[in-house]
């Protein structure tokens, strides 16, 4: 089983969107038995909450389920519990790396996006632009799945 964890700050906007999109792609390709997805936040403010209304709307508009997704906080144990930890921005990555090292490969999400204008997925909690984030999340998740499929060959 290949285990993926997306990490952002609050775990209500960007990383749950990536979790839902990735889960959707994995199900569509019949890979649910081989790849699992989760998400977490480095902060603790929203533990237990469903995704932000902006994230829910972006997903609902495309018929992508966010069922069962609730915020939780990143922990040191995650460094060994996952194969890929994909951080939505460089600050999230620094926060994750402060916990130490584990067996997970750590990526920054924008490494998966072509012609990236910034190393960070902009935070829609502050910008309000969930559609911009959705486009980046879709492209990055498709690329991540392509890379993982290659590795599984
Ligand atoms: P996220 O956005 O990291 O994409 O979930 C945020 C959500 C909440 C907060 C910051 C960012 N907050 O400060 O509560």
UniProtKB/TrEMBL annotation:
**Enzyme kind, highest EC tier:** hydrolase
* Stored InterPro entries: LMW_PTPase, Ptyr_pPase, Ptyr_pPase_sf, Tyr_phospatase_low_mol_wt
Recorded catalytic reaction(s): these are: O-phospho-L-tyrosyl-[protein] + H2O = L-tyrosyl-[protein] + phosphate
* Listed EC numbers: 3.1.3.48
GO: which molecular function terms?
Answer: protein tyrosine phosphatase activity
Sequence similarity? Belongs to the low molecular weight phosphotyrosine protein phosphatase family.
Name the UniProt record assigns to this protein: protein-tyrosine-phosphatase
> Where does this protein come from, organism-wise?
Thermobacillus xylanilyticus
State the gene name recorded for this protein: txxe 521-yfkJ
């Amino acid at each position: 089983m290949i285990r993926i964890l997306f990490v952002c700050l609050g775990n209500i906007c960007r990383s749950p969107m990536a979790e839902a999109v990735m889960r959707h792609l994995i199900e569509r390709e019949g890979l649910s038995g081989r790849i699992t997805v989760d998400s977490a936040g480095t902060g603790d403010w929203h533990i237990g909450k469903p995704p932000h209304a902006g994230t829910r709307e972006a997903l609902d508009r495309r018929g992508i389920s966010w069922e069962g997704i609730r915020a939780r906080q990143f922990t040191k144990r995650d460094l060994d519990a996952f194969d890929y930890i994909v951080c939505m921005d460089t600050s999230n990555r620094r926060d994750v790396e402060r916990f130490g090292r584990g067996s997970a490969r750590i990526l920054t999400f924008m490494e998966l996006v072509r012609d990236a204008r910034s190393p960070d997925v902009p935070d829609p909690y502050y910008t309000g632009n969930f559609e911009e984030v959705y486009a980046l999340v879709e492209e990055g998740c498709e690329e991540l799945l392509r890379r993982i499929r290659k590795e599984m060959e």
